[in-house]
Amino acid sequence: MPSRPAVHTAPTTCSAYSARLGEPLAGTAPSAVAWLAIEQPGPWGARALTESHLDRGLGAELSRRAEGTGVRIALIRRVGHHALTSCDAPRTVLICDTRPGFAAVRSFTVPDPRDLLDLDLAALGSGRLETGTPRPDPLILVCTNGKRDRCCALLGRSLALDLAEPGSLGAADVWEADHLGGHRFAPTALVLPTGYVYGRIDAATAMTAVGAASRGQVVTAQARGRSTWSRAGQAADLALRTELQEFGADAVRVVGEQRLDGERWSVDLVSDEIRYRAFVEESNVVEARPESCGKTFGNPAHLHVTALEKAQ
Is the dihedral of CA 161, 163, 166, 170 positive or negative? Predict the structure, then answer.
């Protein structure tokens, strides 16, 4: 009797579509030279900064002040604490400079979130803000905002709970975050202070990435890119690290970038005082798929490095 043909079940979520297509991760991280992470307990809406129990006007004003500074704002909360139980308690605030040679996290608390209006976000974006206490250990932010995308709720929350377990990273080193972009790469996470963002990451890789960051190293497996750089720079950075097998956090720097046309860039990098040039090209995924759960199907672009050479 002839065998029956295999039955392939169509994916039902954006992350399942992306994984089945093998969508490249490199060059998909959000761009942010610095991060401002604000603890906000309770539920979050799709646009958490203005759709949570944080004052809507305050969230909108912070967002406005961050524009053009290179600072990205994220809401964070303790893993598993989703009910609104302590809205009046002091909030933990994390600020982070992600630039090579300067990457560091500092933390402080505010009794009233309106105190955040005293922060100079332009100074933070340029590396001139040193408010708070230096935090010696790296940490990881895992996107869990189910109002933004159900993949983040299901896959991200599961990852965060695993990492917060005793014997893993521990609750002190893991936070839930509202939005890191790229729902289709869920679970997605950000390691600070290096600013590397990861996609389709499991607990073992996450723990390895945080451990490497504590030693001044970078794990490139499942990396979407270093938020410090533009998306073309992220792809070039990962390609050069892979080529050189260079994993020191400060060992690769993007020093220049030029858009050659609408779909191609040249990116200049330095490693061990040697200059390199990467050529990055944008192309589209052949098979249509949703960028996020519930959205219409499309063919989003992805970046790949077509050439990598020593610069003359």
Answer: negative
Q: What's the pLDDT tens digit per position in 40-80?
A: 998 999 899 999 999 999 999 999 999 999 999 999 999 98
Beta bridge pairs of residue 277: 268, 309
C-beta of residue 246 within 8 angstroms of C-beta of residue 240 = yes
**Global confidence as pTM:** 0.93
How does DSSP assign 195-209, residue by residue?
A: TEEESS--HHHHHHH
- Three-state secondary structure call for residue 248: strand
- Among positive and negative, which fits the CA dihedral 260, 291, 43, 204? negative
Tokens 């956090």 belong to residue: 249
Neighbours of 140 (CB within 10 A): 23
Alpha carbons within 13 angstroms on the beta-carbon side of residue 27 total: 22
Q: Is the link from the previous residue into 193 a cis peptide, with omega within 30 of 0? A: yes
